[in-house]
Amino acid sequence: MELVATVGLDKESWGQVTGLINHGTWDRVVLIKNKLALDFPVPEGVDALFVDTTQPLLEIKKYLVEKLKPLLSEFDACVSIASGTGKEHMALISSLLAIPTGIRLVAFTKNGVEFVN
After folding, report:
1. Spatial distance between the Cα atoms of 78 and 103, rounded to a whole number of angstroms
2. How many domains does the chain have?
3. What CATH number should be reported for the domain holding residue 73?
4. In Å, how far are 1, 32, 33, 88, 104 from 41, measured between CA atoms?
């Protein structure tokens, strides 16, 4: 299973993303990072895509479709939108559906990695 997660400027949610990366069993992890979230360390073996959130939503979506399509091999992807902005979330979800890839929302809880849908 693949994990795709947004990472925004909201540092208090970075623990959620880190927990998912470290405690899940993933074939691949792709982080969608706001270009200003440079402080979030990208672990070795994790793919990172940098989005320019000053771009229009449809431009971000187009970029993500182009970059994500070759990275995803499953019929669905686990997705975390615990970090980031609504614009980043909309672009990510829209791009995954356009690929097309199903979406399984995941969260890191006190019980570990859990599916939310």
Report:
1. 6
2. 1
3. 3.40.50
4. 22, 13, 11, 19, 24
